Amino acid sequence: MRMVLSFTAVLVVLAACPALAGVTYATFSDPTHVNLLERWNADGSYYYATDSNVPSRPLWRAQVFKGAEGAFHGGMPAEGIDGTYDLGQTMPLGEVSLLWRDAGHTPSTWTIYAVYDDERGSVPIVTGKVDDLYIDGRFNGRWSYTIPGGLSASALRIIAPGDNGNVDLPSFGAYLSPGNSLAMDGTFNIFYEENYRDKTARDNGLPGTMTVVAERGGSAIDASTLTDLGTDGFNCYAKGSVEWTLSQAYTFVGAYLSKYTDRDDVPVMGLTIDVHNGTQWVNVYTSPAEGFHTSSYLSFTEVTGSKVRMSWEDTEWGGGREISEFQLFGYIAVPEPATMGLLVLGGLALLRRRAV
Hints:
six-stranded antiparallel sheet, 42% strand, disordered N terminus, mainly beta, Jelly Rolls, 14% helix
């Protein structure tokens, strides 16, 4: 009996330690919906190297839509945009997309290039024009292009002239071509998975898989825009909170808050993020005393759960300031076949112990 118990103990140690047993990550149900450029390292740094005329910000995200610190706010009519992402590896791309802020801040044309790491250099994927953004005479800033047959590139470049006032581009997206997988490794926004699961269920006449409960000043409000890319914002005046009940448990590693303001930066006071670990709420982020001022990635100690809550007190001025987007980053660890084998052996060992 002593030998069997020792063997079982070893199995338990191996199964409980990913470094020893080996784990892999779950993949997105439909990775073609995940923006490849929306990616962050666990330490809070942007995943991809960029070379642009606004080098201090990721190219795809507007930190503050208006003002000199805006990520893709050109600042001067003639400045325009010229930015390149070094993806770090060759990726099979099937679609690119842009979101222009409004008709008065959209260039007349823009071109997206695929960049290669060999002697082929770069080639244009597509050139778009502002006329493409009008539907029935109304401006719609969302623009996307499906790449015929797909292509593989190691970097992307976008060039747009500043010929129509200050250029505002809140979002630049790149997506995998069909048939490719993408690991949910903690560097991508898991709301892509949650929104996909929720929409799929509803499209099939089933109950949604994600529940969102939001209140502000004691009244229920709609917080659906918080997980939509490039929305105008979510007003955080008065005390309030948003709570997400997700379809499954994740190990969360960080969050991204994109703050919108149309004038001088105004902080959101008393902002906190908590994760429910199945027993209690665990605080993973609390804004400093002066408030949450700017858009940023917030890395925190890993905690596993299926409920997340964002809360706030008020703004410094007593009026509403807007958070334009809330993203969550996490992963699901899946045992590799070798680990599964150990778990099976562990079960057999326990059975033998009972027999003895």
